[in-house]
Each structure stands twice: as structure tokens, then as C-alpha cells.
Amino acid sequence: MSAQTDTHAGLMDGIYKSQRHIYDLTRKYYLLGRDQLINDLKPDDGHNVVEVGCGTGRNLIKAAQTFPNAQFFGFDISEEMLITARENIEKAGLTNRITLTQGDASNFSVQELFGFEKADRVFFSYTLSMIPPWQEAINQGFNALAKDGTLHIVDFGQQEELPSWFRAILMKWLALFHVEARKELSGIAASLADKHGRSGQFAPLYKGYAWSIKAH
């Protein structure tokens, strides 16, 4: 990996070495829209579904349980998070349907990581707000996508319809974990979708607390 990748991997490992043990318990109250994204994946039988930045494996497990005839793949830059993900997937009895590896979201190939040419579904769930080269990550997601595949994103929005004090407190708190809501997310995603010959759909969730994007 590059020096930049090594640095970011080290930062993420440092944050999540202890956090990974309580991550799912604490994050379920404010990572809103994840289950809506999972339900919208709707892969056909035999489809390959890839999560970029899979963390503890929570989303992959739920997706695999929801769609039992698809295959799921995930990667994360943090080996600490992958330790927890592997444990969780084994406990769920899904090691035969979920494959994990370490990888950099800003520079990845599903062929190199998992051995197949293109993914039928690619999704990002609250990861772009933690990836410094997040625009490159979206672009790589489109590169990994099959011709008739779909790309899904849910992440922090700009709290457009929520009180300004709420936004200020949330942004300050997120910064403690090196998380930054990307105010250009909808525009950049639309521009990259157009670049790749895709059409995108944007929707604010919970008064702009979260943003949802789907491109096909």
C-alpha cells in the first residue's frame, strides 16, 4: 500500500481498536437509513454485492440474511474492524456467503480483491464521510460496477431542515472521530454518474440528517 494508505489505515486502526467492540451498539441510534439502503439493493439470484468500507460486517450480515441467494463481499482499510467483522460473520453462520479482505476504497479492483470482473451492486454506508479521497472512492465504485448494476450511497447530509444548533453539535461531535459530512456529495455523485453514463437519484432522509443516492 502507499504511504498515504498506510497512514490512513493506521489512523482508522487507532480509532477502532477499542471502538470496534461497541461500534454497532452505539451507532445504531444515529447511522440512519442503512436498512433502507439494504432493502433497496434487491440483487437477483447469484448476484455479487460489494460493500466499500464494511466495518464490523453489520450491513453485510443483514443484507445476506435479507437476500439469501446472492453473494456478498466487503473490504475495509482497517484490519481492526475486519477482526470484528470476521467474528460477527462466523457467529452468524455466513462465512460461505460473505467474503472479506483489506483494501483501500480510493484505489480498488474487485478483480484483484475478490476474483470477479464486475459487481452487480456496490454500496457505501456512512463511509464516504470518513474517507479523505472520497470522490475517488465513488469513481472507483462506478468502475467496479457491471453495466446493468446499481451503486448505492447513504451518509450524513447537511441537516437542511433541522435546527442550526443541532447541526453545529453534530458536526463538532463527528469531527472527534475524523468524520466529515460531505456537502458536495450529491453534486459530485451526480457528476460522476454522468461521467460513467449512469443516471442518479438523490433523496434527503430525516429532514436532511442523511442523504441517499442511487445510480444505475
Summarize the structure.
The chain is built from 9 helices and 7 strands. The protein has 216 residues and is of the alpha/beta class. Helix 3 crosses helix 4 (58-66) and helix 7 (134-143) packs parallel to helix 9 (185-195).
Verbal overview:
Helices cover 42% and strands 22% of the residues. Helix 7 (134-143) links the parallel strand 4 and strand 5 (145-156). The relative contact order is 0.14. By secondary structure, the protein is α/β, with parallel strands linked by helices. The chain starts with a helix and ends with a strand. The protein contains nine helices and seven strands, in the order αααβαβαβαβαβααββ. A seven-stranded mixed beta sheet has the order 3-2-1-4-5-7-6, with helices on both faces. It has helices at 3-19, 23-27, 34-41, 58-66, 79-91, 110-114, 134-143, 164-175, 185-195; strands at residues 48-52, 71-76, 98-102, 119-125, 145-156, 200-205, 210-215.
Beta-strand fraction estimate: 15-25%
Number of strands: 7
How does the overall form come out from the CA principal axes? Answer: globular
Rg on CA atoms, Å: 16 Å
Structural class: alpha/beta
| Average of pLDDT | 90
Q: In this structure, how is the largest beta sheet organized?
A: 7 strands, mixed
- What is the strand arrangement across the widest sheet? 3-2-1-4-5-7-6
Give the low-confidence spans. 18-26
Termini Cα gap? 31 Å
Order of helices and strands: HHHEHEHEHEHEHHEE
Count up the helices: 9
* Helix residue percentage: 40-55%
